[in-house]
């Protein structure tokens, strides 16, 4: 039997907390997950669209619930504007997060929020004093079946409201063990992550070339063949590389498009 899990779902007209909807296995569809709760609130999903809350990307009602296991889902009337997403929240592992933020370790206040890998919760990681500090964002169920989020004793009905409190008002978070105040100043954006990963891939390839003594290949001839590969740092992110020049990019290169047309 597959393990069940909960997904936070934001429903139309609900100004408070997201509703906690239980998924009974990854083979369910998003519709199967949301429809019972929507029906109880007299909301017809037939006139609604479904989106990923963090990234603002649209998804299909028939997608499996496994695709939203580490996300929040927002349901909106089809005529509504696209949701903006939430800055600084990314679907990454703890190891990936620490590796990325260490590139910003000289500046205090760079932060990133990710889903916890162990419990139904989130983790805030932030650079401070030459370290990457971690704070668990606790999530509890209220009596009405909604969620409440907190880092300290102050609770918020939405993750976005918690983040806004500590960023827009520059409210410091007190690290209890070290007795220091930490301020969130700058979220790590997708563009920052891509730039860090591109630099990391380039350095790794250069090191491999030096170790193999094959540096001369880079200067011989022109063109080369473009290949697509899985990023070693983020399993859900792919990049493209040129087999001859060793150039890398996250955008599908023009040379690869021409290559596919010729084939």
Account of the protein in words:
- The protein is an alpha+beta fold and 263 residues long.
- Helices cover 23% and strands 28% of the residues.
- The protein has helices at residues 30-40, 94-101, 159-168, 190-212, 254-262, and strands spanning 5-10, 19-23, 48-52, 58-59, 72-77, 110-115, 122-128, 131-141, 147-150, 155-156, 173-175, 180-182, 186-187, 226-230, 238-242, 248-249.
- The strands form 4 sheets. Strands 10-9-8-7-6-13 form a 6-stranded mixed β-sheet, with helices on both faces. A 5-stranded mixed β-sheet has the order 2-1-5-3-4, covered by helices on one side.
- A hairpin with a 4-residue loop joins β9 and β10 (155-156).
Residue windows where pLDDT falls under 50 for at least 5 positions = 215-222
| Strand order across the largest sheet | 10-9-8-7-6-13
What do the pLDDT scores average to?
Answer: 80
How helix-rich are the residues, as a percent range?
Answer: 10-25%
Find the structural class using helix and strand composition. alpha+beta
User: Sheet bearing the most strands, described?
Assistant: 6 strands, mixed
Approximately how much beta-strand content do the residues carry? 25-35%
Total of DSSP H or I helical runs spanning 4+ residues:
5
The total count of strands amounts to 16
Strand/helix succession: EEHEEEHEEEEEHEEEHEEEH
- Overall geometric form: globular
Rg, please? 22 Å
CA-to-CA gap between the ends? 45 Å
């Amino acid at each position: 039997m597959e393990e069940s899990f909960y997904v936070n779902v934001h429903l139309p007209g609900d100004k408070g907390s997201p509703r906690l909807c239980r998924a009974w296995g990854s083979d369910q569809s998003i519709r199967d997950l949301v429809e019972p709760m929507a029906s109880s609130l007299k909301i017809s999903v037939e006139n609604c669209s479904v989106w990923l809350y963090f990234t603002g990307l649209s998804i299909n009602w028939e997608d499996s619930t496994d695709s939203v296991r580490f996300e929040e889902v927002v349901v909106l009337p089809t005529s509504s504007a696209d949701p903006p997403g939430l800055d600084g929240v990314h679907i990454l592992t703890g190891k990936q997060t620490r590796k990325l933020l260490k590139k910003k370790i000289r500046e205090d206040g760079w932060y990133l929020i990710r889903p916890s890998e162990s419990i139904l919760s989130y983790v805030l990681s932030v650079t401070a004093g030459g370290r990457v500090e971690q704070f668990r964002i606790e999530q509890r169920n209220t009596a009405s079946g909604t969620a409440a989020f907190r880092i300290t004793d102050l609770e918020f009905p939405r993750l976005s409201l918690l983040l806004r409190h500590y960023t827009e008002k520059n409210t410091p978070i007190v690290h209890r063990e070290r007795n220091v105040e930490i301020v969130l100043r700058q979220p790590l954006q997708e563009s920052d992550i891509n730039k860090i990963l591109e630099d990391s891939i380039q350095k790794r390839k250069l090191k491999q070339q030096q170790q193999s003594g094959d540096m001369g290949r880079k200067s011989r001839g022109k063109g080369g063949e473009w290949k697509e590969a899985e990023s070693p740092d983020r399993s859900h992110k792919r990049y493209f590389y040129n087999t001859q020049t060793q150039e890398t990019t996250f955008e599908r290169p023009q040379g690869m498009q021409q290559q596919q047309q010729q084939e």
